Amino acid sequence: xxxxxxxxxxVVAGAGPTGLMLACELRLAGAEVTVVERLAQRSGxxxxxxxxxxxxxxLDQRGVLERFLAEGQLQPVxxxxxxxxxxxxxxxxxxxxxxxxxxxxxxxxxxWAAELGVQVRRAxxxxxxxxxxxxxxxxxxGAQEAPATLRARYLVGCDxxxxxxxxxxxxxxxxxxxxxxxxxxxxELPGLGxxxxxxxxxxxxxxxxxxxxxxxxxxxxxxxxxxxxxxxxVTFERLRESMVRVAGTDFGMRNPxxxxxxxxxxxxxxxxxxxxxxxxxxxxxxxFPAGGQGLNMGVQDAVNLGWKLASVxxxxxxxxxxxxxxxxxxxxxxxxxxxxxxxxxLVRPGPQTDALREVFGSLMVFDEVNQYLxxxxxxxxxxxxxxxxxxxxGRRVPDADLKAPDGATRVHExxxxxxxxxxxxxxxxxxxxxxxxWAGRVDVVEARSEDEHWIVPARGEIPAPxxxxxxxxxxxxxxxxxxxxxxxxALKAALxxxxxxxxxG
Length: 505
Known about the structure:
Layout: E1 8-13, H1 17-28, E2 33-36, E3 50-51, H2 53-61, H3 65-69, E4 73-74, E5 77-80, E6 83-86, E7 98-99, H4 102-115, E8 119-121, E9 125-131, E10 136-142, E11 145-157, H5 164-169, E12 175-176, E13 180-188, E14 196-202, E15 205-213, E16 216-224, H6 236-247, E17 254-262, E18 266-268, E19 273-274, E20 277-279, E21 285-286, H7 294-313, H8 323-346, H9 351-363, H10 367-378, E22 401-404, E23 407-410, E24 421-424, H11 429-434, E25 443-446, E26 448-449, E27 453-456, E28 460-463, E29 467-470, E30 476-480, H12 488-499
Helix pairs in contact: 1-4, 1-7, 7-8
């Protein structure tokens, strides 16, 4: 149960992909969590439509990836502002993006959350918050729910770009204003004549039409230097009129499932934590949805934060551990805002941009350029600022094949329980002995690597390490090179930094 005097350890505001993933991570780590969601039911809107490599790996680390693969379709190509990118099968066991609607992603995450015992209170929105030394009081209410108060140790706002939690916490949201308006909807397009139109640029803007499901197209129109008022109603007729302006025809558009709007405003919370209130997903960062990075970044925010927050509420780590969430994830958000601003500029209509796209496209035939842009989208090259000189320190651990005493396995399978793992690949008794002080908190696994070399995105091939300390989010906290004596002092420091002081006795 939650901490004394609280209803729950953590209140998560928002039952989108970020909030649900965070709730699952908290439950796996033994924390009590309550999700409050303003909407009475899932909207059915599917703004996002894909999962990139690193997020696929994260789902694989938790043993739930097959659920998503069964409902999506792998796409062997990606794009940067509509210019096609190649992926490298050597960099990940899951190199290609999975095309899957956000509505399906949310349904699968909610089913998993229910299995883990997560409570989701719908038609319940945050109306006020008050922090003190021991917790946060969350005032809630809704159209169908009387005002109520939830007492928790921490509150995490995963409640979208217009986050109520962010505003109530007084966290700034600086950035750049919108310069364009895009309309999006799922419709029937009997007059299109082709299954797939990707970023077809015209003098008036650009449009895309993607067949996610038989008989239905995801339609997107973008018109630059036309910024809709925030309160302007989004209607099917406005989408149809925009398609006529941009493409010259509406392709017989009919039977809309839903329509919505977005733009290229780019903003980021100036801090991801204020006391006992934290932010993740769109509440922490909004940007032009180029390359489908938003949902992926939100899920990865949740996986970075979940185990840290659970460690603190369970008394296993000091509160200062939560400061590493901002330190590690804020720069990732900055990078995404930067590359999506570039993609927005690259898609503007006009002869100058036409020339720029031609030059940019000619550079993308070079492997190094293609790799750099690919990594911006997949996030496989993220390296957090952790202490240590080993090329793996701070990076996500490669999913190498292993030979363990009880049979063949692979690195990411060791992370299904969302616990830290000390992986001993050289049979060094001194390494395992250091971890004895963290028995019950860190899993010690002895195995052998099936490969002499591992592939590290943005780094290339490196010798298989002798030992690794892997955080629950799959990033390496400490590593030892094969053939050298492991620095057990650095290992002990890493264990203390990330998993609290050693147990006494």
